Amino acid sequence: MAARPHLLFGDQLGAHFARTGADGQDGPDEDAPLVMIESRAVLRRRTFHRAKAHLVLSAMRHRAAELGDRVRYVRADTYREGLRTARVGSGRRNATVHHPTSHAALDFVRGVPGMTVLPARGFLVSHDDFARWAGDRQGGALRMEDFYRDVRRDHELLLDGHDHPAGGRWNYDHDNREPPPRDVRTLGAPAPWLAEEDEIDDEVRHDLDRWERDGEVSFLGDDGPRLFPATGEEARAALRRFLDHRLGGFGAHEDAMLAKDPWMSHSLLSVPLNLGLLDPVECVEGAEKRYRDGSAPLPSVEGYIRQVAGWREYVWHLYWHFGDDYRRSNKLGHRRGLPDWFAELDADAVTARCLSSVLAQVRSTGWVHHIPRLMVLGSRALQSGWNPREVTDWFHRAFVDGYDWVMVPNVVGMSQYADGGRMTTKPYTSGGAYINRMSDYCGECAYRPDVRVGDRACPFTAGYWAFLDRHRERLAGNHRMSRPVAGLDRLKDLPELLEQEQRRGASPP
């Protein structure tokens, strides 16, 4: 019996997505011909960051070049047209595909006659195992900490015995929240691995230029050189660079921000992980090895493993567990559209140094680390009452590592509290004092973090109190928010503050 063709999506680019399953059931047929489809309609439907469009197409074309004659690489207007060209499905040839990473893609492949959907790859925990774990939770509470510990146990990560975490603690978060050192512009960490472009990158750039010139597509952000891995070999080089030279300094300042140090000690590996170029097993086992051989301290190693084996897995499974309707959650009733200056990455229109600096970095690279995303970009959106579906879509389009499964839980649940607390126990927003403590943004800013009203009033400080007042009734019953809500009654300038924030409206802060 001839091997069935196997479809690879553009975020299923690692060798593990084409590997035959051990039992013949959970992977492609042995020697299966591979099919990849480059769909122009994907870029035409939405305005993506130019760096993201370039990276994804470069990675797909690099993978096709590696696979050679084994792959049929189809350039088509739509996926459906591409399948017809490849003579897959619809009564032509039965085929297989690994479980895609979005509800829309899953619905699509399930609707292709003769297409068999195989189990997901690229994650540590299977859908069935997560379903069993979730079903065992008393009261239905799906706490990330509980999930993370079980992943550690099941995969024997950082354990000295089944229920004995290395170092005697499961969680080193308390050690990993240090502000940046005073009076430094950078952490001085060794530089991360950064890409060098080749002829495939040149070809992609030429195509994007032509399509944009012809009015077929449009983009956000700058057309800078490719920074992130586009091949498995590059991804493994980036992983080794992080593990050998940067992991040791990662933990303590993983929540800190410096205006002139965008990378700090972060891994930048969410990009190749989400393209499927790296298997998370490589990342977490490599990090543990550095702890075991004494080359990286436990708090840094645990902090990184928590990001990959904890948060990343948790977000992936909540995306499927909550279902497609979750993206429509809007418990706070936020309806305002994104202002043009934010939507178009117009950092130069913004006075607040933190927000201007972060938007400028997104504009130039399509990436910032998790704290600027949550506590600067997301916090501004939440305080301003922007529609969470528009915010989610913007994060998806503007970030090189942004995919539907990534951004729906992270933005709807974590950043915008639009689910009313299904995912997190409180809204993640703050006044300028937090940004001042965790960054160097405030020193040269026109606003002051401790001023609520007036020309020097920090937009985040004033915005925080206005947000609490707007949702006072809902948040008063939240045990983690009751104290700040009660603090509203001690603000003698609250009426002036609310009038000021009403005047500011959608203007750039």
UniProtKB/TrEMBL annotation:
<dbReference type="InterPro" id="IPR052551">
    <property type="entry name" value="UV-DNA_repair_photolyase"/>
</dbReference>
<dbReference type="Pfam" id="PF04244">
    <property type="entry name" value="DPRP"/>
</dbReference>
<dbReference type="InterPro" id="IPR014729">
    <property type="entry name" value="Rossmann-like_a/b/a_fold"/>
</dbReference>
<protein>
    <submittedName>
        <fullName>Cryptochrome/photolyase family protein</fullName>
    </submittedName>
</protein>
<dbReference type="InterPro" id="IPR007357">
    <property type="entry name" value="PhrB-like"/>
</dbReference>
<dbReference type="InterPro" id="IPR036134">
    <property type="entry name" value="Crypto/Photolyase_FAD-like_sf"/>
</dbReference>
